[in-house]
Amino acid sequence: MTDRLDVTFPSGPDECHAWLYLPEDGDRRPVVVMAHGLGGVREMRLDAYAERFAAAGYACLVFDYRHFGASGGQPRQLLSIGRQLQDWRAAVAYARSRPETDPRRVVLWGTSFGGGHVLATAAQDPAVAAVIAQGLFTDGVASALAMRPDTSVKVMARAVRDVVGARLGRPPVMVATAGPPGSAALMTAADAEPGYLALVPDDAPFSNQVAARFALDILRYRPGRRTAKIACPVLFCVCEHDSVAPARPTLRHARRAPRGEIRLYPDGHFDIYLGEPFERVVTDQLAFLARHVPIGSAPGEAPGPTTPCKRSEVLTYPIAGKTVFITGAAGGIGAATARTLHSRGANVVLADRGIDAISALARDLGGDRTLALSVDVTDSAALADAVDRTVDRFGGLDVVFANAGIAADPPATIATIDPAMFERVVEVDLLGVWRTVRAALPHIIAARGHVLVTASVYAYFNGMTNAPYAMSKAGVEQFGRALRAELGIHGASAGVLYPGWVHTPIAGAAFGSNDITTRMREIAFPSLLGKAIAPTRVADAVVRGIENRSARVMVPRRWVPFSALRGVLNPVTDLIAERHPELRRLLGRLEESAGPTGKFPQTNSPR
């Protein structure tokens, strides 16, 4: 249970009114200081956020700015940037003074215009523990340019009248905070007025207007420029289709934060306060708090960087709490990815033919968030049953990583390969991906989740001596590209993984176990491209790709130019493969080593 107290604190010559949420156990807790955006009051859904934070054990101080809501200050509806920043400093000081809160674990939470205020405040207060800014205003010029020209003219005319009137002692000239397109209002996008007013409960002390002079101040306010000076972790919750605080300049500023984390949502500015978008954003915010300002820290203990933040990291689909189904999980890339996902808080389903290996991995990871299933990806019924068992165990399925694959052993030319081996590789590497995705797809669509399929650089590199593998991976690439386009209408996504050479059993023939193919690799691949990397490096890229809903995951990155220029480079590399003298000699040796039983029967056909 949580108590909510009505409190006040001084700011300048007036008082700010606030709600103080306190967990009932009496321990000194981290405190989240919260305030709204442009003309907003705390009743406009801030209580919904505060209740979720308080239920997780955080104290919350939710206040109204002076001149708005229940707080003091005359004239009413005066939006002064300087006074609101002063209110933030006063609120933080008050939060630190409360005996129920830990003064060294103060978190700032701001939305819309308040999202810019928390950046400005944290840049000046190095003792702030963390910052959460959603739908945040970062650049007055960018927001002004988002307005229609006719609206700008109307608003600026009122702003000038208001400034002149204020000097003559007259009441403020008001301008609507939100209005229909083309009206004299600060926010006039099609979703602004209905979205803004939908947040207002019937009994809220709210007026949809502010003193027009604010429009002259907003152009000079660019709090996004201060992100590089913020020392603490910052969570930027950015709306992709934000009509009020455009995403592009927001992301540019967010990427300059030394310890910034960015979450990008496929929503508009006002969507994230209600319904499913609200659930997504508040879940991410709670996870951020748990990582950086955990409840379990000792009172007075400075919050350390429990999870290091990478600069410019944009995570649109955080993996914590998601359920991921992985085929080919017994070793190599699959096992390494399972370990990384598990360490990031995901539930992992380990699917492979060898039950002993995946059971051992599951025991090593811990049983609460793992499930080991013996599955052959060529068996559609077994895959459907595995997906059903996954859903029964974890309540749903969010991500499928179709990773199972084999290669011909030993390597062979098309003329000498055992036909059964050729077809087995295609069955596992191409049709196995199709069957895996098909079994999981209804759950992925329902969860608006993500599919990742494992192709290879062989999807676009000449596949001599490895034709069934290369043709399968080229097919997987096309499958993944089509799937991504088709899933977009459902709010889900898909991506293709292109690993280069990796230290796994499937690459063994090219790294010593077969002298001929090892030498062929050395000739065909420049030294930089021919080096093998550890599966853990691929796993890190896979998890980043899932969390970013990336269309392509190429690892190592040095392969990217070759993929981009494949139309130019493929004719050249094909010519080299066809005419290089030593490659031709080695191909001959490889066919001779297959023996007469491996060759197709001779024919008199002139073809």
Write the layout of secondary structure elements.
Layout: E1 2-11, E2 14-23, E3 29-35, H1 46-55, E4 59-63, H2 81-97, E5 101-111, H3 113-124, E6 130-134, H4 140-145, H5 149-167, E7 174-178, E8 185-187, H6 192-197, E9 209-211, H7 214-218, E10 234-241, H8 247-254, E11 260-268, H9 275-292, E12 323-327, H10 332-343, E13 347-352, H11 355-365, E14 370-374, H12 380-394, E15 399-402, H13 419-447, E16 450-454, H14 467-487, E17 493-499, H15 515-524, H16 527-530, H17 535-547, E18 552-555, H18 560-564, H19 566-579, H20 581-594
Parallel strand pairs: 3-4, 3-5, 5-6, 6-10, 7-8, 10-11, 12-13, 12-15, 13-14, 15-16, 16-17, 17-18
Antiparallel strand pairs: 1-2, 2-4, 7-9
Helix pairs in contact: 2-3, 10-17, 12-13, 13-14, 15-20
Task: Give a brief outline of the structure.
The protein is an alpha/beta fold.
Characterization of this structure:
The chain has 607 residues and is an alpha/beta fold. The chain folds into three domains: 2-144 and 217-292, Alpha/Beta hydrolase fold, catalytic domain (Rossmann fold, 3-Layer(aba) Sandwich), CATH 3.40.50; 146-193 and 205-211, no CATH class; 323-598, 3-Layer(aba) Sandwich (Rossmann fold). The protein is built from 20 helices and 18 strands. The chain has an eight-stranded mixed β-sheet, with helices on both faces. Strands 14-13-12-15-16-17-18 form a seven-stranded parallel β-sheet, with helices on both faces. Strands 8-7-9 form a three-stranded mixed β-sheet. α2 (81-97) crosses α3 (113-124), α12 (380-394) runs parallel beside α13 and α15 packs antiparallel against α20 (581-594). The longest helix has 29 residues, at 419-447. It starts with a strand and ends in a 13-residue tail after the last helix. Residues 302-313 and 597-607 have low confidence and may be disordered.
